[in-house]
């Protein structure tokens, strides 16, 4: 399962410096800028397309969400042909987005260092296209949401955890 995130990438020095350091915001900005060459070599067991399809099917993101833009979430540089980057519109509640991000990055609801979650959230917008912010999560409240169960099922089916 861990191979899903292990992409063989020909790193530029700026990309390597930002991704290997703690500057997540800068790293995400580099990924969104666009590049002439596709750096990522996706492994044969890549699950990003399947995950995006399931999120679309279950109404978490719009059907017109581009795979290239979704892959930026996983550190895949956007090609110039796919620019400008458009934030992924999250159609459900913000706590479900927080849960989704924490699960795919295996961090738990409180496992991000200061600024990391905020940097990742720059890749998302609410259903109206506005900037998203989330407050500290109450994991107990998530279990009362029917959408939480749907999201959990998607994550278990696609990446084996949720």
Commentary on this structure:
The chain has 162 residues and is mainly α. The protein is built from eight helices and four strands; from the N terminus they run βααβααβααβαα. The protein has helices at 13-20, 24-33, 48-57, 67-71, 94-104, 116-121, 139-142, 146-159; strands spanning 8-9, 40-41, 88-89, 124-125. It has a two-stranded antiparallel sheet with strand order 1-2. Strands 3-4 form a two-stranded parallel ribbon. Helix 3 (48-57) runs antiparallel to helix 8 (146-159). The radius of gyration is 15 Å and the shape is globular. The two termini are 13 Å apart. Mean pLDDT is 78; it is low at 1-21.
Topology at a glance:
Blueprint (H helix, E strand, L loop, with lengths): L7 E2 L3 H8 L3 H10 L6 E2 L6 H10 L9 H5 L16 E2 L4 H11 L11 H6 L2 E2 L13 H4 L3 H14 L3
Parallel strand pairs: 3-4
Antiparallel strand pairs: 1-2
Helix pairs in contact: 1-2, 3-8, 5-8
Oligomer: single chain
Number of helices: 8
Mean pLDDT, to the nearest integer, reads 78
Class from secondary-structure proportions = mainly alpha
Helix content: 40-55%
Entry keywords:
single chain; mainly alpha; two-stranded parallel ribbon; 8 helices
Compact overview of the structure:
This protein is mostly helical and 162 residues long.
